[in-house]
Every structure is written in structure tokens, then in C-alpha cells.
Amino acid sequence: MPAHTRLSVRISTALLAATALVLSGCTTAGNAEGKEALQAEINEVTSDPRLAAGTWSILAIDASNGDIVYESNPDAPLVPGSIAKTFTTGTALAQLGPDSRVTTTVQGLGELTAGVLNGDLVLVGAGDFSFGLREQSDGSLEYTGFDHNEANTGLLPVQLTSGDPLGGLKDLARQLQQAGITQVTGDVIVDNRLFEAQTSWPDGRIDSIWVNENTFDVVLTPGTPGQPPAVEVRPALKGVTVQNDASTVAGSEVEIDVTDQGGGRLLVSGQIGAEAGQTIRMAQVSDPVGFARMAFTEVLAETGITVDGAAETNPAERLPAQYPESPLAARESATLAERVRVIQKISFNRGADLTACLIAVRAGSTECQDGLPVILDTIEGLGTPPGSVYLFDAAGSIDYDRISAAGQVGFLRGALDTDWGQYLYDAMPISGVDGSLASLGKGTASEGMIHAKTGSRLVGYPARNTLFYAAQAYSGYLTAASGRELVFTVIFNSTTADSIDEVLETGARIGDVALALQQHG
């Protein structure tokens, strides 16, 4: 059974029957009426004064036979935003496999005698971004309605996951304790050599070791006006200090900045309204290796394992060329399918970047940039026309990136005929249900009918003291009201917005094109 048929069955067997009726029994007049209604609704959106001067690339095809349902400028390569993550995650599923996992290990450099390791303890990074933070008892990974690593963090209130930020480290420490280890005469060393740290992409440093997804989550509770807010940091580590220069003011506005000044020192500054309620801000860890080393040393101590070494920085020069076959402790990640689901649902930029690094490693390189040619080769092999996609990063965060609707749709349709395509489909946000589509079509007949990745690019526009809305896109699969399964992409480029509320309104307006395709396609 081809993959696109399996996809249809999983949505609803009744829809397959409806699809058969549409393909074999509908009249030409009915088709004409549907096309007219579709064109009228799309025209209403594209003629909106906020959007009329922008550029569109739209394509929707029948998933079963490739027939064009709607097209407008489908070959124009535009700024895509985060729909580029679909290429990265799809390639990972193809190259690494949905069930693949990565294993973080602890190695011992020295003799282990009577519970004492006479040497160094090495934490070997493997590229597990969750590393216990999101893991749930059923093997799935948790994400929240507006996650701390959501691509647009800062626009809406952040919700933290329920997991333990130090969960992975605690698991490894328990294994060492169960092995009878009570003392390490050397140091804790972090081995970050799986790939070269990626610093050229715009979403932050990418390393093979991740603790709390290499973020500090800062929870602020306002006091009375004139007083500083209360500050709580997650993860709570003794080695992390906070300089709290923030103040509480009247009202409900929040203008708080959190910066990592290195060495476990955080600076919290700005203002929070007394009526704002508890607020969460995050800062990326500037030195993931030093952070992991500090955190693991503290976790070991709490587990009853003392570390005698006192090196101020990570003594990586003592790392060997290879390790013994049997580590002292090991921890497997969730499956790649679950990691892809988190990346797609919350639009996790650094998660996509990390995935490209793992693709590069699989190809024999330690340079994350070498994952991009593999991605391009994979998507072109599945139906993306050559020259329709230009990738400069793995997350769609560089505005040199260009993707046409035809480039996206070609890949998405090709993915349906693979053994991993269903996993990509399942990972996408669902209209009216979750992720970045949680509000699209909610409470209407379109709820649950669209599985798609969104993308957006927004920057300040100083010349007009406003915001430049560079891109908004929707790309994925939908079940039309007619019963047909469609593959579609909608990309819009270039308008302005005067506020975040207007940004959200404009994004929803562009989303109306996807709803029109669902209702009349």
C-alpha cells in the first residue's frame, strides 16, 4: 500500500470513500463552482490592503495524482521562514531513520578500585537536545502551548515543561552510584567532539552536549512598584548567580532582558508591571560545555559522588582518541521521530540546526554546514525541482534562504511514498489543535483537517519605526471538504506591521488562504 494511502486511512476511512466520489462522480459544473469559490476567497485575502503589495507563491495539488488544484506564481523562490525545517527533519528521517536514537555516555579514564575512579570522568555529548527534560513515561517528548524554545519566544507568555532540566544528568549519576562509584580523583571533562560547535547560524551556538536545552529559564514574580521582582532560575544550580537589576513598576507591561555573562553569571534587567503576574524569560547558555560540566559536578555531589579535581576550565586536552567499548553509564534519547515532532510542533530553531549537524555526522563530517548538501540532495531526489530551493541554514532563519511553493510541494508529495513520510505528517502542527496552528480554523469544520508547518520572518524597520514582516508561510497536507487529500504551500513576502497584535492578525489573514484551500479544494 503506498504511503499516501496509509496517510488517508489514518485520517479516516470514510474520507477515502468521499475522495473516490469526488474523483469519479463530480460534475464539471461542480468543479467550476468550487474553483470560482476558491478563487474568490483567495482574491479577498490577496487584495487586503496589508497584503496587496506583497508577493505570493501558492500551489496545491491532489496528493493521489498530482493534479493542480490551485496555483499562483508557484515557481517564485521567496523567503520561507521555518517551513525550511520540513526539509531538515524529513532528511533526518530519511537518512537516520525514525526509530534511531543517540546515546550520551559517561566514560572513565583510569582504574576503578573499591569505588574510587583514579582518573577523570568524561561526559560524552551525543546531540540529545532533550536529555531528560521532555521525556515522559510513554516514551514521547513533552512540549507546551508556547514552549521555552518556540521560534517566536518573546511574543507570548512562555510555559515551561513539567520535566526535570537535570533529568539526563541525574540518570547517569544514579547509574554510576549503582556501580559503586563514590569518588573521582580527577576532573569531570565534557567531550564535545562529535562535531565542531556551530556558531555561524543565527539561532545560537549548537553543541553536542545539551542541558535544559542549553537555556536558563528565569521565572520573575513582580513585587510592589519600586521593588525588584523575585527571580527564580531553572535549572537551580549552586554555581549560577543572578544580578537582579530589574524593577517593578505600575501596570502590566513587561520589558525584561536576561543575559548570560559567562561563568554561570546571569544579569536580569528591565521592568515588570506589578499587575503582570508571573513571567518567564529565557537566555541561551553562552558556554554549553562549561554549563554541563558545572551541572554534572553538582549532580554527582548530590548523588554522593565526590570529584577531587579543580580545573577551572574543561581540560579537553586529556581526552583520548577513543574510549573502551563499555562505558560506565549510558543514556538513550527518545526516537528521532519524537525529536522531529518537537522541532515541528514548536518550530525549534536550534533543534533543527542540531539535526543538520547529526545529518552531517552521518555523512562523515564534523562540520554542521555539510548537512545542507545532504538535505538538498535528499529533497531533489524526492521531487523538489533543482533551483527551487536555496538553503543557507537548517531552520529557515537566514533571509537569504529561498523556497518556492513548487519546491516545497514536490518534496512533500514525494515524502508520501516513503516509509518515513507518515512520521513527517504526524509531526506537523494540526489546525485548531496544537503547535503553531492551534488557532487556525479552531471551532470550524477545518479543525483537525490541516497538518502543516508554518514559517515567519519578522525584523525591526527603523526607517518607519515599525516592523517589517518579511515572510509568512503555511506548508503541508490537508483533507479538503470535498474529501480530497491535498499537498499545499502558501508563501507570502513583504509587508509591515505596527504591533505584535497586528503581526498575529496578518499571519492569521494569510492563513485564510490555507483555510480556503481546505474548504474549496
- Tell me, rounded to a whole number, the average pLDDT: 91
**Major β-sheet profile:** 6 strands, mixed
Q: Helical region count?
A: 12
Number of strands: 20
Low-confidence region ranges: 1-30
What portion of residues belong to β-strands? 15-25%
Give the overall shape, derived from the CA principal axes. globular
Provide the gyration radius in Å. 25 Å
Alpha-beta classification: alpha/beta
Helix content: 25-40%
Distance between the termini: 25 Å
Question: Can you describe this structure in just a few lines?
Answer:
With 521 residues, the chain is α/β, with parallel strands linked by helices.
Description:
The chain has 521 residues and is α/β, with parallel strands linked by helices. The protein is 30% helix and 25% strand. Strands 3, 4, 5, 6, 14 and 15 form a 6-stranded mixed sheet that branches. Helix 5 (167-178) links the parallel strand 4 and strand 5.
Offer a few descriptive terms.
alpha/beta; six-stranded mixed β-sheet; 12 helices; 25% strand
Give the topology.
Elements (H helix, E strand, L loop, with lengths): L2 H9 L1 H13 L2 H19 L8 E8 L5 E5 L12 H12 L6 E11 L2 E9 L42 H12 L4 E2 L3 E4 L23 E7 L8 E5 L6 E4 L2 E3 L4 E7 L4 E9 L5 E6 L3 H16 L2 E2 L21 E4 L3 H11 L2 H14 L8 H11 L7 E2 L11 E2 L1 H11 L5 H7 L22 E12 L4 E14 L5 E13 L2 H21 L1
Parallel strand pairs: 4-5, 4-6, 5-14, 9-12, 10-12
Antiparallel strand pairs: 1-2, 1-20, 3-4, 3-15, 7-8, 7-13, 11-12, 16-17, 18-19, 19-20
Helix pairs in contact: 1-2, 3-12, 4-7, 4-8, 4-9, 5-6, 7-11, 8-9
